[in-house]
Amino acid sequence: MSVKIETENLIIRDVCFGDYKYFAEWEVDPDMTRYFSLDADRTYEDVVTEGFEFKADKGVLDLTITRKADGEPLGRIIITRIDRHSRSLDVTKIYVGGGRRGTGIGTESLLGLMKYLFEEKGLQRVTLDYYTGNTRAADLYRKLGFVDEGVARNATCKDGKFYDLNLMSILRDEYFAIYG
User: Fold this and answer.
1) Which fold has domain 4-130?
2) What is the pLDDT of residues 39-71, one digit of tens each?
3) Whole-prediction pTM value?
4) Where are the domains of the chain?
5) What is the 3-state secondary structure (H, E, C) of the chain?
């Protein structure tokens, strides 16, 4: 499935090979990745290998957030657990890189993604998670209508240490109650 989502300021599209150099830079920045399951010794080759594995997996969408005006990559969205029968999926990773966090790009990206998934693709349920302690993510997700579901204990591993993940979801009816 090819994806192109347009918002006021952004285009979210399928990853292309040139995007990996940005991801490799962003995904080793300790400030950016503090709450992601990315090992500190991650390399450009790791990013490219993972990207090619995602392209081969029909259950994964790997997307780049770009600025509409000039196409510059600004972030990444990875979607997994695509279940066509249950009309659900998981936003496994979403981030804004290059020191652009806190500028509204993540909010605009997630709103555009939800609009696409619920209004164009007819999804019933979208899930995501965040590291315990990542209050910035939790506040954003709640503001956009996601509902807490619980905690998955020791659900992910980073640099040999296990972390809990807080699970959230938004349902089709909840999305339309908020966004019409």
Assistant:
1) Aminopeptidase (3.40.630)
2) 888 999 999 999 999 999 989 999 999 999 999
3) 0.94
4) 4-130
5) CCCEEECCCEEEEECCHHHHHHHHHHCCCHHHHCCCCCCCCCCHHHHHHHHHHHHHCCCCEEEEEEECCCCCEEEEEEEEEEECCCCEEEEEEEEECCCCCCCCHHHHHHHHHHHHHHHHCCCCEEEEEEECCCHHHHHHHHHCCCEEEEEEEEEEEECCEEEEEEEEEEEHHHHHHHHC
